[in-house]
Write a structure and sequence with these properties.
Layout (H helix, E strand, L loop, with lengths): L5 H7 L10 H7 L5 H7 L7 H10 L6 H4 L12 H4 L28 E5 L2 E7 L23 H12 L6 E6 L7 H11 L7 E6 L1 H4 L6 H9 L3 E7 L8 H12 L2 E8 L8 H13 L3 E6 L14 H14 L7 E4 L8 E2 L1
Parallel strand pairs: 2-3, 3-4, 4-5, 5-6, 6-7, 7-8
Antiparallel strand pairs: 1-2, 8-9
Bound molecules: iron/sulfur cluster.
């Protein structure tokens, strides 16, 4: 389970607003964090409870109401529920499944900064997420060691200022949009003053799980920046995209954002041609282009989601048979030490 030290919590309190928190923050605070409550709300019988408690002890459950409302009650195989439901399998040890599957600890030259690929850097902008996805490759990430104070951010930004090869800053986390707009505006204001930076990319699941996150305060700083803006959403199943999510996408596009999506191929959730086809179709209806389909990163606790490479290739071949090329996501794996994602 992720726990935060008092010093860490104090640092992140710097951006606490003095006025009434926006609606999305109340939804974030009200997310379900109790596995028994999750089972009860979805009508799952008592047999699910021990496994849910065991998984929760390793990585806490977190599900906002807006996401819960898209799940089918009384259906333990619901594809949205399966992404967030803790299970006893998470406690199993599987050879090759480790706590840092992408060896990110080797690529953190400054606090909050991950530099793996040429031309772009990743900033750990928030240590938390609105939803805790059971397959997350950062479920064991040491956020306490990578959550800069503002003074420490300045030092991290200095390393960007001094490297003219960096053209793109990627806000990541956790979920970067879990940070307050005040904090994000502060950071982006500094980023856009770095002349060699051209693009701002945001990797987020918040517009999906709490669509109200895309409010006027967010659109204000995002719409105002001189940087080209790309938001990479993370959606794994067409059922995640309801009218509220479509509305959030429309607001982002109106602010000049290019919208892409990345998915993870997950056993029992989206491992079928029909399911992936429906996802691509629904994404495009919402104005989002499918970008990547990742095979699972071998993170400890998530082996039960794995789909073998040969099966993954067959699925994507099946997508090519029925979809135009621009709706077929690139099937990739991230291999530690490689200079880019590796196509499969
Ligand atoms: S939202 Fe992203 S970073 Fe957060 S738990 Fe899910 S996959 Fe991981």
């Amino acid at each position: 389970m992720i726990t935060r030290s008092p010093a860490f919590l104090q640092r992140h309190d710097e951006a606490k607003p003095l006025v009434t928190p926006p609606a999305w923050q109340a939804q974030l605070a009200g997310a379900i964090r109790d596995p028994a409550e999750l089972c009860r709300r979805l009508g799952l019988n008592e047999a699910w409870r021990p496994g849910a408690e065991a998984g929760h002890a390793l990585f806490e459950v977190r599900v906002p109401e807006a996401f819960l409302s898209r799940m089918r009650p009384n259906d333990p195989s619901d594809p949205l529920l399966r992404q967030v439901m803790p299970l006893g399998e998470e406690a199993l040890t599987t050879p090759g499944y480790v706590t840092d599957p992408l060896a990110e600890a080797m690529h953190t030259p400054a606090k909050g900064l991950i530099h793996k690929y040429a031309g772009r850097v990743l900033l750990i902008t928030s240590p938390t997420c609105a939803v805790n996805c059971r397959y997350c490759f950062r479920r064991h990430f040491p956020y306490d060691d990578n959550s800069p104070s503002r003074a420490q951010w300045e030092a991290t930004l200095d390393s960007l200022r001094g490297d003219p090869t960096i053209r793109e800053a990627i806000l990541s986390g956790g979920d970067p949009l879990a940070a307050s707009d005040r904090q994000l505006a502060w950071l982006v204001e500094r980023l856009e003053k770095i002349p060699h930076l051209k693009r701002l990319r945001i990797h987020t699941r918040l517009p999906v799980v709490i669509p109200d996150r895309v409010d006027n305060a967010l659109l204000e700083w995002l719409g105002a920046t001189r940087l080209q803006k790309v938001v990479v959403l993370h959606i794994n199943h067409a059922n995640e995209i309801d009218d509220a999510v479509v509305g959030a996408c429309e607001r982002l596009k109106a602010a000049g954002v290019t919208l892409l999506n990345q998915s993870v191929l997950l056993r029992g959730i989206n491992d079928g041609v029909d399911t992936l086809t429906a996802l691509s179709e629904r994404l495009f209806e919402a104005g989002v282009l499918p970008y990547y389909l990742h095979v699972l990163d071998p993170v400890a606790g998530a082996a039960h989601f794995d789909v073998p490479d040969d099966e993954a290739r067959e699925l994507v071949a099946g997508l090519r048979d029925v979809l135009p090329g621009f709706l077929v996501p690139k099937l990739v794996r991230e291999i530690p030490g490689e200079g880019s994602k590796t196509p499969l």
